[in-house]
Design a protein that fits this description.
Blueprint lengths: L11 H18 L4 H8 L2 E2 L5 E5 L2 E5 L6 E3 L8 H13 L9 E2 L7 H11 L1 H7 L4 H10 L3 E3 L4 E8 L2 E8 L8 E7 L8 H23 L2
Antiparallel strand pairs: 1-2, 2-3, 3-4, 5-9, 6-7, 7-8, 8-9
């Protein structure tokens, strides 16, 4: 299903720009009410007052005491990368309900300037490495728990964080047009994550889909 092409280059520029935002998020969260954060972000509160959420399906626990984060199935702390994304999400969340209206990267705040680069890391990479086309795309999306939506030849929506939804859409090629794929965003995402973070999440979603299919191909 997949070719042997090298993975897309790391989105270092976006990661570097997100780092100070995440640091500011930790400061902004200091002293914040866990109840209010849960209400705005869609997280659950457990009996100890911790926030519980999932990032790409991985269950995480956020302690309101210093906002440390660890996996729900382990006492090991989350990676600094995961921590940056989760803290930025919590600090940005304002309770806006997902709209169900899908937009492209260029429609995000300041997204137009980086739209071509993002497409190279996401949709173009997916088409380039997904040799079996539509059938493989559907199999991978279903394996990741995607919800089928009515876009393109096939499309699936994903709850990457409790109220932050992304979608993958795929158009089969023919004699005249090459296959295309795109990462789309619920129009409400700007209320939960800055554009740099959304670029990272979109690229991560594509990478997870491709990795899922690689695992399925292993003997």
């Amino acid at each position: 299903m997949l070719d042997d092409g090298r993975p897309a280059a790391q989105l270092k520029e976006w990661v570097d720009r997100l780092a100070p935002v995440a640091a500011a998020a930790r400061e902004a969260l200091a002293g914040a009410s866990a109840d209010r954060l849960a209400l705005r972000s869609g997280c659950e509160l457990d009996g100890q007052g911790n926030l519980r959420l999932a990032l790409f399906g991985q269950a995480l626990v956020v302690s309101p005491d210093g906002f440390s984060i660890h996996r729900a199935d382990s006492a090991d702390p989350a990676s600094s990368f995961t921590e940056s994304l989760v803290l930025t999400y919590l600090a940005s969340a304002d309770g806006t309900v997902p709209s169900g209206r899908w937009i492209g990267f260029r429609e995000l705040p300041d997204g137009l300037f980086y739209a071509d680069a993002f497409q190279g890391y996401s949709g173009a990479r997916l088409v380039r490495e997904l040799c079996a086309g539509l059938a493989a795309f559907c199999l991978g999306c279903q394996s990741l728990g995607g919800e089928r939506i009515d876009l393109g030849d096939a499309a699936y929506a994903f709850a990457v964080l409790p109220r932050l939804r992304l979608a993958l859409a795929y158009w089969e090629g023919d004699e005249e047009f090459e296959a295309q794929a795109r990462v789309l965003f619920d129009s409400s995402v700007r209320h939960y994550m800055p554009t740099d973070g959304l670029a990272i999440l979109g690229s991560q979603l594509v990478g997870r889909l491709l990795e899922t299919l690689r695992v399925k191909e292993d003997p």
